[in-house]
Amino acid sequence: MKKLLSIVLAVLMVVSVLALVACKGNTTPETPKTLKFGMGVEVSAKASDATDDKNGSCEVDSTVAVITVDADGKVVACKIDSAQIKGSWTVDGEANATTDFRTKLEKGNDYGMSAIGKKEWFEQIAAFEGVVAGKTLAEIKALVAEGGKGVAAVTTAGCTITVSDFVKAIEKAFANLADSNATAASTLKLGLATEQEKQVNAIAANEEEEIAAKDGTIEFDTTIFGAAVDANGKVVAVDTDCTQVKFTFDANGASTFTATEVLTKRQKGNAYGMSGAGKTEWFAQADAFETQCIGKTAAEIVALVGTDGKGVEAVQTAGCTITASGFAAAAAKIAPAK
User: Fold this and answer.
1) Higher pLDDT, 210 or 227
2) Looking at residues 29-39, what average pLDDT do you find?
3) How much is the pTM?
């Protein structure tokens, strides 16, 4: 009887093992969980008067963060960059051209922090991004100490610069979170492309020639392309925006720039004013361009814009009829380095 029982138990064990092996053999890989994706832009601008001893100056800083966030509201990945663009004019109201439009990341060692014995900006921002990973928005906001620097956990990680604008950009990215096809395997990319759209000298009033005084203008436009890409470099999530700031100054070199708050084109919403001219608003046109970017590489996105600066037929049919060259220039920057 005992022998028979042993045989039965042995048979049952073999059957159980075979069943387990069969189950494992039929198991399909678990589909990667998708994440929410968002981008935020924090903008500030300032200007100063020209004097006999120095030029007048203007500066616009566009700090951008893209994030992916899991179902628990924790950041999976974060990417930050900043365009710090500077302009100048003389005491006679003559505008100077700006030639360097590189972002802080693009400047690399040229940013110059290592020259004063500190870690470079790109190293410090990488350290901050590492601290942010795995944290909720509330925990990220708590990383800012008095004066805008990071708390001990941030400085110990290697980020000793001011972090308040980084956190503000991340907070705006959280506000813009949307469902996406990004996963934990996705790589976050940022492209910022800046142009000096206007460079106009100021004109002094002249009663004899009946010439009215006219301010000079320097305008900087920074188009932003944030994305998550897969292993093949194809975009699985995207967000775009543009910072457009106009600085003005008179014929004596005094700044007449008075903006107290600077908003991006997307942040302005309907207030940007295209709908007032009977056109689709900028943010809606940007959304339409984004729909054409999903599933494409950076090179394929650049090819969506023709030599006239407008989108190809598919882009315009989707609803983006504005000049799209800025989108293409920014998207080109997320391409893999050669």
Assistant:
1) 227
2) 90
3) 0.89
Count of alpha carbons within 13 Å of 95, Cβ hemisphere only?
A: 26
Query: Could you tell me the two tokens for 99?
Result: 């030639």
Contact 229, 334 (CB under 8 A): yes
Burial class (CB in 10 A: 0-12, 13-18, 19+), 37: buried
- Report which residue type is found at 281: E
Question: Where are the strands (E) in the chain, listed by range?
Answer: 36-48, 56-69, 75-89, 95-96, 178-179, 187-200, 216-229, 235-249
Q: Within 10 A of 184 (CB to CB), how many other CB atoms are there?
A: 12
Residue 43 near residue 264, CB atoms below 8 Å: yes
| CB distance 330 to 192 below 8 Å | yes
Give the C-alpha separation, 224 to 230, whole Å.
20
In this structure, are residues 328 and 224 in contact, taking their beta carbons and an 8 Å threshold?
no
Q: Encode pLDDT of 229-261 as tens digits.
A: 999 999 999 999 999 999 999 999 999 999 888
Residue 58, token pair as written in the block: 């203007």
4 pLDDT higher than 90: no
Identity of the amino acid at 221: D
Strand pairing report for 235-249 and 95-96: unpaired
Q: State residue 27's pLDDT score.
A: 53
Edge-to-edge strands of the sheet including 235-249?
187-200, 216-229, 235-249
| Per-residue pLDDT at 293 | 98
Name which of 275, 261, 53, 39 is nearest 170 in CA terms.
39
